[in-house]
Every structure is written in C-alpha cells, then in structure tokens.
Amino acid sequence: MITSEEIKRRLWDGANELRGSMDASRYKDYMLGLMFYKFLSDKTLAAFKMLITKDEITESALIANYYQSMAASGPQLESILQSTLGYYVLPQHLYQTWINDINQGHFEVQKVIDSLNHFERSIANSKDADDFKHLFSNSTLDLTDTALGSNLHERSKNIKALILLFADLDMVALQKGDVLGDAYEYLIGQFAMESGKKAGEFYTPRQVSEVMAQIAAKTSNIRSIYDPTVGSGSLLLTVRKHLTKEVQQSLTYYGQEKNTATYNLARMNLLLHEVKPHKMTIRNGDTLTHDWPEDPQHPSEGVQFDAVVMNPPYSVKNWNRAGLKVSDPRFELAGVLPPDSKGDFAFLLHGLFHLGQTGTMAIVLPHGILFRGAAEGEIRKRLLEKNYIDTVIGLPSNLFTNTGIPVVILVLKKNRHIADPVLIIDASNTFIKVGKQNVLQEKDIAKIVDTYVSRQEQAGYSHLAHRQEIIANDYNLNIPRYIESIDNDIAHDVEGHLLGGIPQQNLEQLTVIHTTTPDLLQAALAPVRPQYFVLNTTINELSDKILNDSRIIEQSAQLAQQTQAYIDQYWAQIIAINDPEQIHPLMESMLDDIKILLTKFNHIDIYDGYQIIAEIWQNALLHDSEIIAATDFYTAGRSRIPNMVAKGSGTKKRVEQDGFISSLMPSELIASELFADDLAHIDHNKQQIQALDGELADLIESAKVEDSIEYEALYESLKKNEDDEPLDGFDNKKLKEELKNRAKDSESYALLKKVDRLINQKSTLSKQIKADEHALKQAVQERILHLTDQEIDTLMYKKWFGNTIALLGELIEKPIKAELKTLQMLNERYQDTLTSIDNEIEQLEAELQAMMQELVVTQ
C-alpha cells in the first residue's frame, strides 16, 4: 500500500525533476491539471465497472470491455455515465489510452489536446457543466507552450514524463480517506513555497488556514460557506475538515476567483475532495467589481452564508475601477467607500455583507487595518459601533511567501450583544523559524483557538476590550494599545549592587519554587540585612535538592501514571483502526485529551504537551494508521515492502531496489531490539577500527617531524600531493617497498611492520563489519515476516511512545529549572558589590606600583 506521505514525496520529487527551469506557479497548472484528468478517467472506469460487474477485473480487460460497450451502445452508455458522474471520458480519450500510446511508442501531444477538448464538449449540456467548464482551456493548460519545450519533440518528451508520473496511481482508491485530496493540497502548498510572491494568488499557508477554519467551524448549524477570494479552495476545504461527517454531507460551498487558472484549480481541488458537483458553486469573476452571489428576490441583501472565510490580496490599489458608489449595498453600512489606494476594507465589507445573522466570518488582512485613519478609520468606527468585530488576532510577520508584513485575522459576527467586549489576541511572538519563513506550530494554533473559544484574558497574550476602552483609544485597535508585552528582564536593584544581596522582591518572582518547595528555597538563603539575601549553597546543590524532593517526585510519578493510562487507552484504539475516516477524529480526540490531562498539574504549559503529541502524529501515526486501516495491525507489522533507493546522478540517475523494509518499523529499531548482540559485536569492531585509526594517525604525525625515528622510518611511505608534501595517510605500495629495503632487525623495519600490521588489521575488521552488517540486514528483513504479536507490540510502542512519558515528565521540571537559572543570574548579578570592586581596584593599583618600582632602567 502507498500512503499519502509517500505519494506526496514521490509526486513532489517528480515535479522538481521534470519542471526544469519552468516557473513553479506555471508548472503547477500542468501537473495538477493532468493529475485531475487521471482522476476523471479513473472515476469513469470505476463507474463503468459498477455497471457491468462486481467481480475483480484487470484494468486492461475493463478498458477493452469499455471500448466494446461504447461501440455497441454509445449514446445510452454516455447518458448513464453522465447522469451518474456528471461527466464521462470516452475510451479513446482515457488517461490510460495515453499511457498505452506511450508504451507502444506512438504517443502524440495532439491526442492529449483532443482528449481535453472532447471532455469540454462532452459536459457542455450537463447540469453540472459550470463545475467542469473550461477546466482544461488553453489559458490554463496550453500544451503548445514553448515553456514545456522549445520544439514538438521536447514538449512531447516532457509531457510523456509528466503523464507517467501518475500512471500507477488509482485515483478512486486514493480518494477514500482524503488521501488524494491531501496529496493535491500538499502539491499546491509546495508549489506556493516555490512560487514566492506569486503564491499569494492561490494559496493561504496551512497554519493560517487552520486558525481561520477552526474558528469558522465553531459556528453552530453551519450549512453554507463562502470564500469571495477562493484561490485554490484550501480555506473552504480546511473548514470542511473540522466539521462532522453529517455536516459535511449537507454543506454547500461558494467561491469566486478572479484568476482563471486559479479558479480552475479550486474546482479541481473541491472535486478531488469528494465535494459533489451540485454542492459547489465556484465562479470566475472579480469579487469587488461584481457582487456575487446575488439574490434576485432580495437585491439589497445578497445571499447570506453561515460562514465566510477570506484571504484577499493585501492593500489592492485602484480597486474601484468600476466606479462603485457608497450606495452599493455592500458599503452602505460603512457610510464611506474604502480608499482607492487600499482595498482591504472593501473585501471585508463584501464578506460581511454576505454573512448570515448567526454566522461567523474570518478574514486575514495587513496589520494596518487596525489603526489607519481617514476613511478606513471611519469604517472601523462604524464596525465597532455596530459591535460586529468579535476578535482581533495578531499573527507573526513573515508567515506568507509573498509578503513579510505582519497580518491579523479579524473575526466578525452580526449577532453580538452591544456590550460584548472585543477579544484581542497577540500571537505575534509564538512561532518557530523554518528556513526563511516563520511558522506557527500546532501548539500555537491550538492556543489561539482555545483562547478564542474560552475568551479568557492572559497577561501579555489576550485581552477583552470593552466599549469604553475602545472609545478612549479613539477606535484604534492597534494591539499594543491593549496588550502590553511581558518584559522577562528583571530590573536591577541599586542597593543590591552597592551593598550586595538578592532583593526580596526578585525572589518573590520565583513563583513556581515558592509554590512547590518554599522551605528548600528559604533554607538556601541567608539574610545579609532586611529584604536582602545571599545563597548559602551552590545552585547545583539547590537544584539537586529541589528536583529530587519527594513532592516533585510524587508529582512526576502521578503524571507518569496518568500518561501511561492515556497512552494505553489510545494504543488500543490506534491498533484497532480499520477505516481511514477514523484517523483524523482519533487524532483530534487524543490531542484534546492531553490538554485535559495536563490541566490537572500546576505550572505545566499544556501546549508544550500538546505539541509533543501532535509531533507523534505528524512524524509517525498519520503514516502508520493509514497502513493499519488498509489491513490490520499485526498483518501490517509483519509486512515488508521493497526498499527503493536513488543511485547515480545526472543522466545515470535511477531508482533501484535495495532489499526490503518493514511497512511500519524502522530497520534500526528492529535491529536494536531483537539483534542487540549482533549490533554490539559490530559496534565493538568499529571501536577497534577507531583505535587503529588513532594509532595510525599518531604515527603519521610523528613521521612528519624531522629528526625523529618515525620520520626516518616512515616518511617515504606517506602519501604525497603534487608538490611532494605529505598527506594524512600511508601509501601501501611504498610501504611494501620500504619493508623490502630495510634490515629486518632495524628499528625502522619494526615501525614499518607495525604500520603494515595496523593497516591489515583495519582492512580485516572493515571486511568483517561489512559482512556482519550485510548479514544483519538480511536477518532483519527475514525477521519482519516472522515477528510475533508481542514483538510487534513492543517495537511499535517504542516507536510511537517510547519517550513520551519522559518528555511529558520534563514539563514539570522545565519551569523549575527556568527559575533556578534566574536565581543563578541574580546571585551572580549582586555578588560583586561596589565596595568589593573598589577594594579590588585598590589592590590592583598597589600591585602595579610595586611592579613599577622594581623596574630597572639600563643604558
């Protein structure tokens, strides 16, 4: 079985290899377009198979049967397929037919063009025509483009290679469990990262989508969702992912996109994610110029949606080329048009106009919309007076590939009580750096969403701004006006510097130690005068006492016990997975429960624990659970797959099989757990080689020292460069010659013989290690097939949860160690008083004078 992670890796590697110098934002249209056509072909064949048989049948036999049936009753079969799928692909236009042409050596690019054109014609009169119309138009998929190759031969070669990239993928099977959709989304994201500034046209970074989607998904009774700047459709689909299956089945999707190629991408993306054609309405158009969707019965209201999500282009200039007036129903609320130089509020007001009375809107915009004045200030004031702004979320800068500016997510609702405060969240400092980009971790996303749901205030992170406070700030929502950054630097104390001693007020800031082991801290401090103390022990000794105190040990034991019960509970559920659709709900449940577990323990950062479990899923469980769902846990544990490795480079680059690997377990883990003695023997021999290398290195260095016995004996045997300078190695041929020319009873001969012996020993050990490693590799590959259930349990537990209890246990020690580090800093800060520094200066001056008097001047 091929997993979604393996598909993603293979397709992206293939894309990089095939696109050459073509711009990523352009190449994506070809790759994703042909991938989608393969999906349409596979769906057509799957629908045809359901009509003729329920038995297993080879693909070649199915295609032959399809040709025959179409020849015998074409119009009737076309009608059945059209009504079943909303489209169909004729046998001669199937993706599989292209592959067959390639294999038989008579492939023509024109046949691909003809196939795409025929599909356009075949759906022209379908009720679902709008969902498929112009998907493969020349503006999106121009197979005559010289960017694909400067001549027909080159274009044919490159298109064939791209077609073959998807040849063995069963798109229908992969659509189950959203494997295909996830792969498609992954490719869109990868192309976005490669596209730089152009990425903003079609992609919202996953972590930003997640925050917006999870917030929008909290809307109750959600039945419809709208993205007026839909891009590739990722925001709509991310919201969908966080809804129950029942809600997903009844959900309707609306979106509008100005860029035609991106509009096509969105339609393909939704269809690949199993969104039914009649449930999606995606339109190619300019959202600001032409209000859509419109309600003919209520032209001044527009169609209302339960959720609106948007990532519009930022600060669009000259957005009002259509000459819209403030009388446009979308802008009446504001009483003024947004400035022509910045279209941010124009997009916001459009989305708000289409938001239902009980719905939720989430939009990401540049930070300036919080505080810019003039018309934008007036619009912001109107929105706040109506109390439509529910939440402001400040995000880090440099999250997007197309801009480095900081952005904010605004959450808007129409059914807020007039006295409800605006929640302001400052998440601008919670991120990690990945390459050149800042990235929100899973724990950062979870903390934002949890804070949104609980609406709790947290110093330095979140604040509830009430109406009077906002008015006092003249309707300016700039986050620093409401949330003051926490300064972790401890202020210096003048008296402490002058007279020494750690101030009492600084010690009171060690809240975790004061709460957990106050007596140990008190015993470690000696007063030097009122309100000032010195340590009467070392920090290391105090750390040992606190971390090994029975209260800390008891708390760690309780956490370990509860973590073990938590793991045992989910272990049973994970190994019992038998449906891909169980995977994501199980992951969400496991992540929610770790937060509940950790809230029982004081001073633990529950989101650090959340991240530990999230990474277990990302690094192992998502992949492994797919395999388990396709078969069963113990069968998967005893399954192995070919180990395909890349060899060679350039034109000689190829992929070959190098034995087998387990479907689930790393070979290194099997070896360490079940072949420990063999590994120890190999490791011992490697250590012997290191020792031999050390002896040889010493002899080489000695041989480079003139006038030494080693120089006289060994210098001529050293390898030399072109300038006859000695290198760090012996020349075996010269070594043998030197041995022949030296007297056997000489010291030089003995040294040469020693080198020869060391080299031979190293060679023998190297051969032995190579043979032992090969034998171990063979043994591991064979053992995979014969693992017992108990062995599989042990190995997989170690892979998934081997260090989880220890990692979560460290969360108890983490804040204590941080405060001990602060205590050490305070101790060092106030150790040297002004008096002691003056005394040291006086002593140094005296020593200098004494030295000067001892100086004797000679002529």
Question: If you had to describe this structure to a student in words, what would you say it looks like?
Answer:
The longest helix has 38 residues. Strands 3-2-1-4-5-7-6-8-11 form a 9-stranded mixed sheet, sandwiched between helices. Strands 12-14-13 form a 3-stranded antiparallel sheet. It has a two-stranded antiparallel ribbon with strand order 9-10. Among the domains are: 201 residues, Up-down Bundle (Ferritin); 109 residues, no CATH class. The protein is built from 34 helices and 18 strands. The protein is α/β, with parallel strands linked by helices and 859 residues long. The mean pLDDT is 89. Its EC number is 2.1.1.72. This is site-specific DNA-methyltransferase (adenine-specific). It comes from Candidatus Schmidhempelia bombi str. Bimp.
Low-confidence stretches: none
Helix content: 40-55%
Give the strand order, joined by hyphens, for the main sheet: 3-2-1-4-5-7-6-8-11
- The structural class is alpha/beta
The CATH superfamily of the domain at 1-201 is known as N6 adenine-specific DNA methyltransferase, N-terminal domain
If helices are DSSP runs of H or I spanning 4 or more residues, what is the number of helices? 34
CATH architecture of the domain at 1-201: Up-down Bundle
Distance linking N and C termini: 93 Å
Task: Report the sheet with the most strands, covering strand number, pairing sense and barrel closure.
Answer: 9 strands, mixed
Keywords: Coiled coil, Methyltransferase, Restriction system, S-adenosyl-L-methionine, Transferase
Catalytic activity: a 2'-deoxyadenosine in DNA + S-adenosyl-L-methionine = an N(6)-methyl-2'-deoxyadenosine in DNA + S-adenosyl-L-homocysteine + H(+)
Organism: Candidatus Schmidhempelia bombi str. Bimp
Family: Belongs to the N(4)/N(6)-methyltransferase family.
